[in-house]
Amino acid sequence: MSLLVNKMNYEYLLVEVENKVAVVTINRAPVNALNAQVYQELSRVFDELDANDDVHVVVITGAGEKAFVAGADINEMAGADLVTVVKNNKVSRNMFKKVENSTKPVIAALNGLALGGGLELALACDLRIASENAKFAFPEVGLGIIPGGGGTQRLQKIVGQGLIKELLFTGDMFTAEQALNWHIVNKVVPVGEALSAAKELAKKLAKQPPIALQMVKLAVNTGGNTDIESGLIIESASFNTAFATEDGKEGLVAFTEKRKPNYRGK
Length: 266
Prior knowledge:
The protein is α/β, with parallel strands linked by helices. The chain folds into two domains: 2-206, 2-enoyl-CoA Hydratase, Chain A, domain 1, CATH 3.90.226.10; 210-256, Lyase 2-enoyl-coa Hydratase, Chain  A, domain 2 (Orthogonal Bundle). Helix content is 47%, strand content 17%. It has helices at 36-50, 74-78, 82-100, 117-124, 151-159, 161-170, 176-181, 194-206, 210-223, 228-243, 246-256, and strands spanning 2-3, 13-18, 21-26, 57-62, 67-69, 106-110, 113-115, 127-131, 135-137, 174-175, 187-189. The protein has a seven-stranded mixed beta sheet, sandwiched between helices. Helix 3 (82-100) runs parallel beside helix 4.
């Protein structure tokens, strides 16, 4: 892999790019807990990746074999006053929105614990691949607080209010297999293979026309937050945008000519 060329210095992130796929690794031992600096660095790197035409898909994972992200840094939160917490929460929520609204597909490779803010980060991604030993939970209520990074909203869109209330009220841990059954993750793979599986999927997506991928994401994300008629209008506008691109014409012509399309991202 080649390192992503940038002028930013990241203390807690490793960023690599190969074949139009960027891999962002959160590297904060021992369990990759999210603190204010990690949130800021993730926000910056997603700005950079979104503007990089050489990157078509992003994979995000955690360093080591123990955790994807085992939540927020509780020591930092416990010592903060309300003003600081409000400020940091705004930073974290903006970061989650950047992940969710990135113009590129974002795949989470869940290589271990994804708790609290780590689960919220995974939910902001488009697709999630978990290793068999991955475990998930929203333990916040047991600490006297609640999720503050969008978890109460994003997860209920997947599992419904009944199940999410149970998970939030109890803080109970659930397994990768349960997450698969509840459609929280897209695939479960053997221990140690989450990142490689995510990269293989990313390589497959990177061969697709990037503007069409962007329009799919826009139609699903935006349309999913509105009524059906408004969603259909959004879908129609997204379809028209994709059709009007050079890649849209190339894909259709290549099909009629029975050849492989040459997508250029235009």
